[in-house]
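Input record (Table S2, row 509):
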Amino acid sequence: MRFEEFPLDIRSRLMPAHAGRMVYRCLGCGGCFGIDQLLYVCPECRQVLLIEDEQSSRLRETPGELWRRIFDFRRMLNLPALKGIYRYHEFIGPAIPLDAVVYLGEGHTPLVAANRPLRDRAGMDIYFKNDGQNPSASFKDRGMASALSAINAMIRRGVIDEVLAVCASTGDTSAAAALYGAYLAPRIKSAVLLPHGKVTPQQLSQPLGSGAAVFEIPGVFDDCMKVVETLSDEYPVALLNSKNAWRILGQESYSYEIAQELEYDVSRVVVVVPIGNAGNITALMSGFLKFYEAGIIRALPKILGVQSEHADPVYRYYLEPDAAKRRFVPVTVKPSVAQAAMIGNPVSMPRVVHLVERYNESAGRQQVFFAAVCEQEIMDWQLAANRNGHIACTHGGECLAGLVAARRRGLFGPEEAAILDSTAHALKFSIFQEMYFTNTFPPAYGIEPRPELMNRPSLVRPADLERLPAPGAPLQGEAFDRFVRRTAEEIAARLDLKKRPPGAGPSSG
Ligand SMILES: *Cc1c(COP(=O)(O)O)cnc(C)c1O
Ligand SMILES: [Zn+2]
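Output record (zinc ion complex):
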């Protein structure tokens, strides 16, 4: 829609004003630092940071009703900078000028309602929000769009010149970082560190294809993370892990989109996310809190964070009901099909602790919950979802498994609706489906395929055919006709099809 066609009262707000005073805020000592530098931990106490807008109270001067109209009208505005996560510019990056925004098509991923059979099995309404439909096929693009827009703004202001961006990754962070970095070539070069043998071939192909320097490190993600932290402490590199608070800001868009998709009524909603390094659940809580405080939503939705029993330090922490007695203990991870969440010592844990408390306090009751599920449940539910028309990755399966487990504990009722985060595209993790279908899971996963969920291709090669077509050597004439007829007959026999009576026309469909 053309600018002149928007209602008068909306026009002045369609284009966000460059405003706000964004600062890094330390979660340890409360210290506050300017954003004209790349900071990952507090220079004073080494704690993790969050980015705050010191003038966020001005957001409350706009009534919630008007915010809702602004965002709804922005949907119709054809301005690339506001087509992705920055539709919510005032909340995600008021200090980022629009001409610095990097937009590669991220965000506004579809919310897909489950069909009746799957809803019946889950015992409540469920939707998948398919974050695998982002440019690099995972939700990490949301945070990367934010981090790279911030770096781009610094380059444009002349604060920095050339950037070497680094990250450690369970696969998807590196794919997203390399993609967004490549878009800003030659100013930005990327290096990614991956745990050797612990990312899927599809994930490995992504940073390679984007031209990043790819380093494989022995051990697991937590080991890579330590190396990257040392690099960012001692060398002039830009850290793109979710330790980088800009990543969290961008990932808040996930909550804003849910609010907007549901006409800003999230009062009977449970949002389910997997937890790995805990950046995503941090962003989820922070995002909903901001919309709540600005009067855009009138209630905070419930949140369920799910972990695999093979990497469940956050779940274990919250097993202790008495907050004063809780103690965080990192775990040693075991192999998990929710491989992108196979993290024993989540970097964002202090953020989670801080925000869970604020979230429950604002809601006036416990509103954030945790569940742990076994590997078998993750695979079985992923496959069940996808057999009902979804494209859930293993982490999407983990969400569904966690929801079902939480339903059994009576945490949610049938009148509520769950939104499950399929954090990546199923294709990224197809090797686990392959292991399931061929019954070749290494014992450490503890997964026994259920025959009714297995599926294999079958080769059709009628035994009585002497000649077969081959690439570059097609059959002709009688031999070809015979091949086609015999193959069709063989397929019909395997599918148990009955031949149509002669003379009857083709059936409908
Ligand atoms: C990164 C990632 C996670 C874990 O998210 P955190 O923010 O690290 O908790 C889950 N699923 C997928 C597909 C991911 O890429
Ligand atoms: Zn500090």
